[in-house]
Amino acid sequence: MGIAGAILLSTVPPRLDRLPWSKWHVRLVIALGITWILDGLEASLIANLGPTLEDPRTLGLDPAHVGMTNSVYLIGQVVGALFFGWLTDRLGRKKLFLVTLGLYLAATALCGASPNFWVFAGLRFFAGAGIGGEYAAINSAIDELIPARVRGQVDLGINGSYWIGVALGAGLTLVFTNPDFLPVHLGWRLAFGLGAVLGLGILFVRRNLTESPRWLLIRGRAKEADEVTTQIEHWVHGDDIPPPPLPVEVRTFEAPGIAHLVEVLFKRYPRRSVLALALMIAQAFFYNAVFFSYGMILQRFHHVPAHHVGLYMVPFAIGNFLGPVLLGGMFDKSRKKMIAITYAMSGLLLLGTGALFYAGVLTAVTQTICWCAVFFFASAAASSAYLTVSELYPIEIRGMAIAIFYAVATACGAVAPTVFGMLVQSGRPINLVLGYTFASVLMLIAAVVALWLGVDSEGKSLEELSG
Asked: What is each CA distance from 195 to 44, 80, 178, 355, in whole angstroms?
């Protein structure tokens, strides 16, 4: 169990929070933010390859099996988040960076060599485990290293980079699923292999990252934390380092156990835990419901050829990326209000889109435009959920807190691809509309919970928020 140790007086947290934005922060964001790009790439590949995988010249899957592979990937994320989240609170943030990324890259590359559905599904599980582990370690590290005054904007921007990966995946599938360029039986395999290659170079970039000074500090390694912080200051300020600010109190902990985790989540911060669950579950189901059925809906209801699905995914991804980027600064002015607004707008816009779809007035183009509008707000909402979980819990359990809420949300959301795959397979628009309505109601409930239990955390240090 977590054991309370000495109370340290340290200048490390305020020194990190007062740093000006610099090239070092940009490198940090690139090295760690690749996680979201890779996850977006993975999701995009399978969403766009779904129609191709139904071709008997590939794996010959039906829509339900395509949905199942997505669910298996998400279940892998749950297992990976819990296992690697547990490790990152014990071993540190940096040690997990290379392990989780390496697992993802190996599993994704091997997906392209799958001979049948069962092997493919198993490899999707391990690819998901790698990405799930990344979320726990990297969300922790980013919030512990980014200055408090811009934490909202940076977090939303990084989480929004998921959609850069989506656009990359769509671009890859436009080429690799087009029979004019590559044979159908080969193109989908190469798409997975190239997707893994794109993430390979980041392994070398991550080797030069520092451990989180805040994590070192709460483990009682004050001297090492100070040295790492001084090194970061030199990278940012050069030799002109300003005098240290006033120290703050930091309590040291040994590796936290289940009892301490339960005490923090459900006795010390029960309101925050209800908030986190509501936000995470709603966005996970909402996102998985729409996104993983995207390609199948375009093909089955709007008669878009399988190798053209990526054309509709690129503008959709751009709209999703612009939401967190353009709205991110507003979250550093009012967390609670912006979270509620983005969740409510997402739900209302999807309800409207479902009504238009049922009325039969949407084409492939107008359907995509509607989805772009929905996810302009929904991607910002989803990013704010991860921000909420990662900033509102103490450092000694941050990795596991992220992992638990992420795992619960992903487990709930994991049923959505299978369910919506079956809804698409039914061929009845009303079934999809009912599914969209359920997802929208979850988002509207989360918006109310955000107004009720939300925390005005903008501009506050992590130590102040968990004090």
From this structure: 11, 20, 17, 36
